[in-house]
Amino acid sequence: MTLQYILFDLDNTLYSARYGLELNVGRRIADYLAAYLGVSPEEAIRQRQERIHCYGTTLEWLMAEKGFTDVEAYYAAIHPAGEADALSPDPGLRRFLEGLPLPRGILTNSPREHADRILAQLGIPDLFTHIFDIRWSGFTGKPHREVFLRALDILGTTPETTLFIDDTPRCVTGYCALGGKGVLLDEADAYPGYPHPRIRTLQDIFSLIPV
Ligand SMILES: [Mg+2]
C-alpha cells in the first residue's frame, strides 16, 4: 500500500543522541524521583526499571503506582528553560525534511513546550502538520497501541500507509505489532539483531520510500 505520511519521534531522532540532551533529562528525572520517593537517585531508578515495562513513560508509572499528581511541577523540573541550548539550527536536517515527498508529523512522549524548544533550536518549527505530545495522549505515551491509533485517526491514515521512525526499539516494535511500517533509527549500531527495518541515519529512509 502506498505511503501517505511520515511520523517522527522527536528526541534522539530529529537530533543526535550525541548532544546528550536526553541524558540530562534522565538525570533530572532521577533527582526528581529521588526527592519525591525519599530515596537515593540510584534507588529511584532501580524502582522505575522494575516497573517501567508496564508503562509508556516514567510519569505514567509515577501516577499509576506512586500516587503522584503534580504533572506540571514534574515537567517544569525535568524540562527547564534552556534545556535545548546545546542544539543549533540544522540546515541539512531542514533540507532533508523539505525533500521528503510526504507530509510529516511528530509523535513524542515529551510535553509540547519541550518539542517547541527543540524544533525552534533546530530551525524547523514550521515543517510538521501535527505534533502529538504527551498531554495530547493523556500521559499514556508510546508504545501503547491506542496512542498510535488515535494519532493515525486524526491524520486520516493507517498503520500500513504511515511510516514511523523512532530510536527506541520498543516504540517501533509496538507500532510494527499494529501492522505498521516502523523503522528503528539506530545511529550507534546498538541493535544489530533488531527484527524490523533499521537505519543508521535519517537520510536512509529514502530507501524505504518509493519515489
Ligand atoms: Mg527518542
List the uncertain runs: none
Q: Which of globular, elongated, flat, extended, rod-shaped describes the shape?
A: globular
CATH architecture tag of the largest domain: 3-Layer(aba) Sandwich
Question: Strands across the major sheet, in which order?
Answer: 3-2-1-4-5-6
Write the topology of this structure.
Elements lengths: L4 E4 L12 H17 L3 H11 L6 H8 L5 H8 L12 H8 L5 E4 L4 H11 L7 E3 L12 H11 L6 E5 L2 H8 L4 E5 L12 E2 L12
Parallel strand pairs: 1-2, 1-4, 2-3, 4-5, 5-6
The structure holds magnesium ion.
The site of magnesium ion has 7 residues, from loops.
What does this protein look like?
By secondary structure, this protein is of the alpha/beta class. The protein folds into two domains: 5-15 and 88-208, 3-Layer(aba) Sandwich (Rossmann fold); 21-78, no CATH class. The chain has helices at 21-37, 41-51, 58-65, 71-78, 91-98, 112-122, 145-155, 169-176; strands at 5-8, 104-107, 130-132, 162-166, 181-185, 198-199. Strands 3-2-1-4-5-6 form a six-stranded parallel sheet, covered by helices on one side. Helix 8 (169-176) links the parallel strand 4 (162-166) and strand 5. It is globular and about 55 Å long. The structure holds magnesium ion (MG). Magnesium ion (MG) binds next to loops. Residues 9, 11-13, 166-168 line the site of magnesium ion.
